[in-house]
Amino acid sequence: AAEPGLYRTVTGAEAISLGLVAGCKLAGLPMFFGGYPITPASAILHHLSRLKEYGVTTFQAEDEIAAIGAAIGGGLWAGIAGFLKARTGANEVIVTIMLNNIAVYLIGYLLTTSAFQRPGSNNPISPPIKATALYPHLLGSQFRLHAGFLVAIAATVFVWWLMDRSTIGFRFRAVGANSKAARTAGISV
């Protein structure tokens, strides 16, 4: 039996968060953690957001549009390394390591600007989205299902049609399957 006293329960997410912060502090590096609210990393993100005094910067993509924007931004950022490799022959590994440091400090700065803070809060949370910019709820406000679900279904049907039923989809598939055969068939590769 445990001795009488004051004990504290530490969850796995909290332990990982504290370990990540300790590792960054020992390495002398700032910490950036980005996540999406419905992933298993959400608990870690929430614990880390409470540790701002240790140089932790967090980013929570609130919806699909924010996640897509983050993916596009990341792709453009990685494109810098690709451009430098193609133009100057720079080593992409070294360039991306340097770009990581630049990105951490750039994001850290941007998150302290008024564009990323709610009025009356020091946390980097964007102002609330206007009600006119939200998808309408399909089954009432007590459910989270909104018209974005229908947009996703429509996008899925469109991509299926594009890839399986259109001329450009045939070209995509032909080039992807065998670019030499596609070139022989007269498709511009």
Commentary on this structure:
Helix content is 54%, strand content 5%. It has a two-stranded parallel ribbon with strand order 1-2. It starts with 11 loop residues before the first helix and ends in a 5-residue tail after the last helix. The chain has 189 residues and is mainly alpha-helical. It is built from 7 helices and 2 strands. Helix 2 links the parallel strand 1 (31-35) and strand 2. The model has no long low-confidence stretch (mean pLDDT 85).
Structural class: mainly alpha
User: What is the overall silhouette?
Assistant: extended
Sketch the major β-sheet.
2 strands, parallel
Radius of gyration: 23 Å
* Number of strand elements: 2
Taken in chain order, the helices and strands follow as: HEHEHHHHH
Helix percentage: 40-55%
Low confidence ranges? none
Portion of residues in beta strands equals 5-15%
Strand order of the largest sheet: 1-2
N-to-C span: 72 Å
Average pLDDT level: 85
- Helical segment tally? 7
Based on the model shown, name its key terms.
single chain; 189 residues; mainly alpha; two-stranded parallel ribbon; 54% helix
